[in-house]
Every structure is written in C-alpha cells, then in structure tokens.
C-alpha cells in the first residue's frame, strides 16, 4: 500500500481539506445552529435530568420519598431557628409567616441549587464532555431542569403548609406558573454563566456557598425587607427588593398566601421579573456558547 | 478495500501538526499543603500561574486517513493514543494545529453517560440519547441491545440498578449500548477486551460489522493480534510523537522488536 502518485500530493492540509469538503473537528457552530442542535437534544436533556434526580436517592431505604421529605425537614429547621428562636417575623402575623418562610426557602433553594449545579456542570462532568458529542449547554440546562423538578416536589409540601395556615386554593394560585417559569429561565441563564466560569476555575465550587448564603440573607427569605429596614434610607430596601431572588420569592408568596397582598410587592414587579429572566437567559446562553469548543480542555 | 485505495483516495481525517496540552490543577510540584499552595499563588511565575501543571500529551502529529481504511494506534501506556483519538473526535481542543474531518467522528463508548444507580433498562435509553439517537431508534434497537449484552441470560438483571452488576456484566452492557449506533468515522478505544471469551467473540464480530458500515475506523489496542486482525495501517505513537506510520506488518514488527516481545 505504498502511496501511489496522486494529484493531491503537494497540497497543504488546509487545501486538501477544502478540496474534499472536510471541516475542522470540534469547531463552534453558529448561534442559530447551536440552538437547533440543543433543541435536537431535548430528549437527552430531559432524560439526563430525570436520571440525576432518581439516582440521588436510589440508595436510600425510603427511596423517592426523600424528594418530599428533604424540603419538609429543611423548612422545619428554618422555622425552628428563625420563627421560634430568633423571631424574625417582626410584624407578620403567624398564619402568614410560616407559609411566607417556607415559600422563601423553597424558591431561593431553587436558584441556589441551580447555581451550585451550574458551577459543576462542566468541571464535574469532564468525562462525559470528553467522550461524547452534544451541545455542551445541554448539561447546565439539564441541571437546572433537575432543580425545577425538585422544586415541584417541594411545591407539594408548600401546598400542604399553605392550606394548613389558612390559605386555600384560589385562581390566584395559577400565578405561580408564570412566576416559576420566569425564575427557571433566570436560573438557567445563571447556571450557564457559572458553568463557563466553573469550567475554567473549579475553585468557584468552594466559594459559591458563601456567596449564595449572603445573597439569601439579603433577599428576605426569613423576614420582610420593607418591615425589617423601616427607618433606614429607602433605597436600600429598593435595591434588595428588586434583586431577582427577592422578586421571584415575592411573586410566589403573593400568588399563594391570602394575607400577603399586593401592597407587599414593589412597583412593576412582573416587568422586573420578566426583564431579569430575559436578560440572564440571553446573556448566559451567548456567554456559554462563546466558549463551546474549549470545554473539553478542562 | 485495497481497490478503492489505489486510485482516487478520498481523505476522511486530516491531522495537521496537532499539539495537545492538558492543564492539571493541583499537580504543581512541591508539598501539597495549604501554605505551599499559598506561596505558589504569591510567587506567580509569569504566565505559568498558580500550581497549574501542563502535560504535553501529543506533540505535532500529522497524518491523513482515507475512506475505507482501518487504522490501528499502538504505543506504550501514556503515549497519547487516547488523547489523539479525542482530538480527532473534536472532544479535546488542540493547542495548535488542526484536525479536519468528514462528518462527525465518534468515539465508541458511553461509559461516562451511564449512571450506576439506575437500572440497566434506563441506562440503555439514557446512553442511546446521549449518543444522539432518537427515542424511536432506541425503542427499535432496545431488544437487540439487551439480547446482545446477554445480561438477561442469568435472570432479569436489566431491571436492576447497574451497581448490582458484576464488572464483566456492566462492561458488556456498556459495549452493547455503544455499539448500537452507526458511525461515519468510528474510533474504538480498547473496547475489544470486555467480558468473557464468549462475549469477546461476539463483540469482535460486531466491530467487524461496524467497520463495514463506517467510512474509516481507528482502533486503539494493546493486543497486537486484534490490531493485525482488523487494521491495514498502523500509527505508532511514543511520548506524543508519531514514531512510525505504515502497513500493519511492518510497524507491528518494529514495535515488537522495540518492546522486546
């Protein structure tokens, strides 16, 4: 099989590739193509998120029951500390405070765990990235989808708590759907950004818990921001209230809790929720896509 | 396949002076203690920052593969064979140089996508989706995959979590899933040596089938016999450099002489 003389001899590699229509392996597709590829992988994204969710508790004796038990215990601990011991309710009636707190914990956990999963989405799955072809955005999207499904289990607990404290199902409960949909888009955008950062700097996985905890305490998970900051300059409360975590929390509370009326919401809250979601969704996606061809390097 | 090699050879993979460098965190010499890490951060030699060590795994490899060829990659452990395959597949970006390919080369293997805590059944579906098969394709081939793996020969194991499988059984299922898809440019990384003798024969046969369907095949293996059986051209890599590129017999002979076999 000694090479026979061929008209291709003497062509440079690039010319030879061009002549036979070969393309550069692992090149980044255009944004439109990328979205199409990602959509083509939607079944994988969903299956992967569900698999992760199931695998989480598959060794436990109670199995999938932990999907509901974990958020319940979580809410109970926060109630014990902030409701009974520290008493952060400050001006919120008891029958509002418990669902208020539980909603806050669950909704914030949704964002928190999406961010944490996002940081490790690429760096923790390098084996997968180096073995198979798929648009890498599948991973962070899949992880935030997993968190959304986890949140749906938490919602079961939340409904029970709301009813137990006198808020009964009403039409306004349907507002939960757009609120969580917007939050999901926001979380996914954030997870995409964190995934790119985390792929370069895995140390973020160590740092993020502290950032997230600070964010949690600043977002009024266990207290009402305007009531807590009474007498302080109003811009502080405004900044805190318009931060995305607080916005989505307030929207879900407003939808579910009878005693939590629109007077507790900042002005134009739905618009703000929409802007945050679109902003982070678009920016996060483009930012992640820009480094698509480099994720395998780790 | 020699006949279409002589005239009008169509290249399917062109590697042009490919270099690949891994960056390893926490491998940066010195003691592994916190103070050592801190001093590394503070010292910060120019460019080469903070305890990141570079491993130059592939150094300037150039070759052209043509349609219909089956190419073996040999070399001692750590010579850069698997890394080169990943670069051809576009999974690992090259530091410099370029790889041009016809279509999307794929690595035979889904291990990384499977989860030990899930049942074999769900892993078949998950693995298939991860490789880019549609749900319909998986449904069509599901029974074939399970039968081929022989997992159910000793009872209904496919509905048990994969962590309950013996290592041989798990390897067989993984191979069966991976081999269920057709590929343009197929790359096989030591996949032949899985399972018991019976399964090895079956998997070698399946690889021959895949080879027929695929345009070009790359095979990484430490078994000179399976390289001889399947490949008509061999690349010998050593320390990331291409030491030899030629017909199987010639290269294997030189390799055996060198490794003293």
Automatic annotation (TrEMBL), chain A:
Signal peptide feature range: none
Domain of life: Bacteria
Keywords, comma-separated and alphabetical: Antibiotic resistance, Cell inner membrane, Cell membrane, Membrane, Transmembrane, Transmembrane helix, Transport
Residues of the ABC transmembrane type-2 domain: 62-291
GO molecular function annotation: ABC-type transporter activity
Lipid bilayer topology: Multi-pass membrane protein
Record bears the keyword Cell inner membrane: yes
One Pfam family per UniProt: ABC2_membrane
GO cellular component, as recorded: ATP-binding cassette (ABC) transporter complex
GO biological process: lipopolysaccharide transport; response to antibiotic
Positions of transmembrane segments: 65-85, 97-119, 151-171, 177-198, 269-289
Major location (coarse): membrane
Record's subcellular location: Cell inner membrane; Cell membrane
The family this protein is said to belong to: Belongs to the ABC-2 integral membrane protein family.
Name the record gives this protein: Transport permease protein
Organism: Streptomyces scopuliridis RB72
Automatic annotation (TrEMBL), chain B:
SMART domains: AAA
Keyword vocabulary terms for this entry: ATP-binding, Nucleotide-binding, Transport
UniProt keyword Transport, yes or no: yes
A Pfam family this chain is assigned to: ABC_tran
Molecular function via GO: ABC-type transporter activity; ATP binding; ATP hydrolysis activity
GO CC, alphabetical: membrane
Domain ABC transporter, first and last residues per copy: 42-261
InterPro entries: AAA+_ATPase, ABC_transporter-like_ATP-bd, ABC_transporter-like_CS, ABC_transpr_TagH-like, Bact_Polysacc_Export_ATP-bd, P-loop_NTPase
Protein family: Belongs to the ABC transporter superfamily.
PANTHER family the record matches: TEICHOIC ACIDS EXPORT ATP-BINDING PROTEIN TAGH
The protein, known as: Techoic acid ABC transporter ATP-binding protein
Upper taxonomic lineage: Bacteria, Bacillati, Actinomycetota, Actinomycetes, Kitasatosporales
């Amino acid at each position: 099989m000694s090479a026979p003389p061929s008209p291709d001899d003497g062509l440079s590699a690039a010319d030879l590739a061009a002549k036979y229509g070969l393309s550069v392996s692992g090149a980044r597709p255009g944004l439109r193509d990328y979205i199409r590829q990602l959509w083509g992988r939607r079944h994988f994204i969903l299956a992967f998120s569900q698999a992760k969710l199931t695998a989480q508790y598959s060794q436990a004796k109670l199995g999938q029951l932990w999907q509901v038990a974990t958020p319940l215990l979580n809410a109970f601990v926060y109630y014990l500390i902030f409701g009974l011991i520290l008493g952060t309710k400050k001006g919120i009636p008891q029958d509002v405070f418990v669902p208020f707190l539980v909603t806050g914990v669950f909704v914030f956990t949704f964002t928190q765990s999406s961010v944490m999963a996002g940081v490790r989405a690429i760096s923790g799955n390098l084996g997968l990235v180096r073995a198979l072809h798929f648009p890498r955005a599948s991973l962070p999207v899949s992880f935030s989808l997993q968190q959304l499904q986890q949140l749906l289990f938490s919602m079961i607990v939340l409904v029970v708590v709301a009813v137990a404290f006198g808020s009964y199902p009403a039409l306004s409960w349907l507002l939960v759907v757009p609120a969580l949909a917007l939050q999901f888009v926001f979380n996914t955008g954030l997870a995409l950004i964190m995934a790119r950062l985390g792929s370069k700097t895995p140390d973020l996985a160590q740092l993020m818990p502290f950032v997230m905890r600070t964010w949690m305490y600043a977002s009024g998970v266990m207290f009402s921001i305007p009531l807590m900051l009474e007498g302080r300059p109003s811009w502080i409360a405004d900044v805190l209230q318009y931060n995305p975590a607080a916005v989505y929390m307030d929207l879900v509370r407003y939808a579910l809790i009878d005693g939590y009326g629109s007077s507790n919401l900042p002005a134009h809250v739905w618009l703000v929720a929409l802007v945050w979601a679109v902003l982070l969704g678009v920016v996060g996606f483009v930012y992640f896509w820009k480094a698509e061809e480099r994720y395998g390097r780790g | 396949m020699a006949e279409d090699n002589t005239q009008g050879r169509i290249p399917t993979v062109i590697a042009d002076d490919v270099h690949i460098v891994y960056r390893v965190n926490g491998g940066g010499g010195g003691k592994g203690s916190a103070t050592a890490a801190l001093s590394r951060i503070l010292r910060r030699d120019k460019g080469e920052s903070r305890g990141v060590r570079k491993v130059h795994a592939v150094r300037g490899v150039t070759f052209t593969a043509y349609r219909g060829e089956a190419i073996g990659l040999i070399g001692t452990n750590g010579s850069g064979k698997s890394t080169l395959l990943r670069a051809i597949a576009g999974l690992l970006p090259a530091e410099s140089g370029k790889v041009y390919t016809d279509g999307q080369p794929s690595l035979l293997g889904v291990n990384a996508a499977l989860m030990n805590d899930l049942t074999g059944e769900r892993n078949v579906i998950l693995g298939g989706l991860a490789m880019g098969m549609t749900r319909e394709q998986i449904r069509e081939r599901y029974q074939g995959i399970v039968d081929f793996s022989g997992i159910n020969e000793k009872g209904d194991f496919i509905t048990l979590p994969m962590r309950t499988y013996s290592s041989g059984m798990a390897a067989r299922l993984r191979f069966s899933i991976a081999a269920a898809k057709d590929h343009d440019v197929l790359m096989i990384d030591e996949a032949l040596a899985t399972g018991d003798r019976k399964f090895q024969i079956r998997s070698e046969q399946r690889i021959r089938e895949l080879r027929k369907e695929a345009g070009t095949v790359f095979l990484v293996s430490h078994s000179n016999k399976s390289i001889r059986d399947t490949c008509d051209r061999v690349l010998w890599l050593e320390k990331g450099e291409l030491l030899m590129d030629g017909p199987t017999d010639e290269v294997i002979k030189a390799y055996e002489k060198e490794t003293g076999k």
